[in-house]
Design a protein that fits this description.
Elements lengths: L2 E9 L2 E10 L2 E9 L10 E4 L1 E6 L1 E2 L2 E2 L4 H13 L2 E6 L6 H16 L7 E2 L2 E4 L20 H10 L2 E6 L6 H10 L3 E4 L6 H10 L3 E2 L16 H8 L2 E5 L7 H10 L2 E5 L11 E5 L2 E6 L2 E3 L13 H10 L4 H15 L16 E4 L5 E6 L2 E2 L6
Helix pairs in contact: 1-2, 5-6, 8-9
């Protein structure tokens, strides 16, 4: 049976006032009138489901806690329009990382109704600089290609964050790239020259641009400068706390395939109080999460629907904001079947109202209960 979602549909060719037809979890067709150039699209808007490649938790669940927690965070973020995600680990002892990866893989292999689809894991550490941990627990180790291969045997890993200045990083980048992982530079003190060399060796992006990395000094440029000068892709936390609006706009002009992430932790969607980030206890106060020092940001409580609102709020066109929250992250991990509304793609769809609030979410053509709550 063919079902339809009606509204103003954002396709790769532009807006279409009409409807999306879908059957058996796939988009069958888009019907309607193509809007003329410059014609404002009327709500409701039908856009591709959001894709979050950096998300530690949400709804009280932490990806390090195993399969039930991964399912819980996948359900929480699905209600906010995220239809595909990469549950993200933190730096921890290797046995704990292996356990977390096994839980992520279990959900990836057996997706259930109401959950965002799990694309694979984002391994954030432990191959990062101990001097740029940010809110990561203190378990950084030197790059180890054999250990990484063992983890790859446990779980599909789609993104890996590492510090390229560490001994052994070049060999690890090569091994991970050969395995199909997208290697991102982050939690790093590398010089711009070292970061550029890592890009030549197979790295292809930057993790939470501007945060936990060497910066933009005009005489001693670091990783952030390399991202702006040489990067084709980078992720950025679009909560307007980790990165100021002007810097998001600057990055959007400089990095062709900049995409948004949440970096959300278990506190997302939860009351103020203490929560877990790996072995750390962190504090949520309002829309900010910090380490016990009250100053160091410890992930976020962002959801992707709010990220979209923030990007539009700082002046980006809705079409570009959707590209940053849906299409570009999907393409970054080589997925052409999600992040866009076109025949043959998965029926992962979000309907937004006039103020961009989520009204409905479909994952594989199935409605997510309590969407927008």
């Amino acid at each position: 049976m063919t079902d339809a979602v009606e509204g103003c549909v954002l396709t790769p060719e532009g807006w279409v006032a009409g409807r999306v037809l879908h059957a058996e979890g796939r988009i069958a067709a888009v019907e309607g009138r193509a809007l003329a150039p410059g014609e404002p699209p009327p709500p409701p808007y039908v856009v591709p489901g959001f894709v979050d490649l950096h998300v530690h938790g949400g709804g009280g669940a932490d990806a390090m806690e195993g399969e039930p927690a991964v399912r819980r965070l996948a359900r929480f973020h699905a209600r906010h329009g995220t239809t595909a995600l990469a549950p993200t680990t933190v730096t921890a002892p290797p046995a704990e990382i292996a356990s977390a990866l096994a839980g992520i893989e279990a959900v990836r292999r057996d997706s259930r109704e109401g959950e965002a689809r799990v694309l694979g894991a984002h391994l954030e550490g432990p191959f990062i600089s101990p001097e740029r941990l940010g809110a990561q627990p203190p378990f950084a180790i030197a790059p180890d290609a054999d250990l990484a291969r063992a983890w790859l045997a446990l779980c599909r890993i789609v993104v890996v964050t590492l510090a390229p200045e560490l001994p052994g990083a070049e060999a690890l980048i090569a091994a991970l790239s050969q395995a199909g992982c997208r290697v991102q530079i982050g939690h790093s003190l590398a010089s711009a020259e070292a970061a550029e060399a890592a890009l030549r060796s197979g790295a292809c992006g930057f993790t939470h641009l501007f945060n936990a990395m060497s910066g933009l000094d005009h005489r001693r440029p670091g990783v952030a400068a390399a991202a702006l000068a040489y990067g084709e892709s980078a992720e950025i936390i679009a909560d307007l706390r980790h990165v100021a609006p002007a810097m998001i706009r600057a990055a959007a002009r400089a990095v062709p395939r900049l995409h948004a992430v949440t970096d959300a932790i278990s506190a997302a969607g939860m009351p103020d109080g203490a929560y877990r980030l790996g072995s750390h206890r962190v504090e949520k106060r309002g829309e900010t999460v910090t380490m016990p020092d009250g100053a160091t940001l410890a992930g976020s409580v962002l959801t992707m629907d709010r990220a979209l609102e923030n990007l539009v709020g700082i002046g980006l066109p809705l079409e570009r904001a959707v590209a940053m929250t849906s299409t570009r992250p999907a393409e970054h991990v080589g997925r052409q079947d999600i992040g866009r509304i076109a025949p043959g793609c998965r029926a992962d769809l979000v309907t937004l109202g006039a103020r961009l609030a989520v009204e409905a979410v479909l994952v594989g053509g199935r409605a997510v209960p309590d969407a927008g709550r």
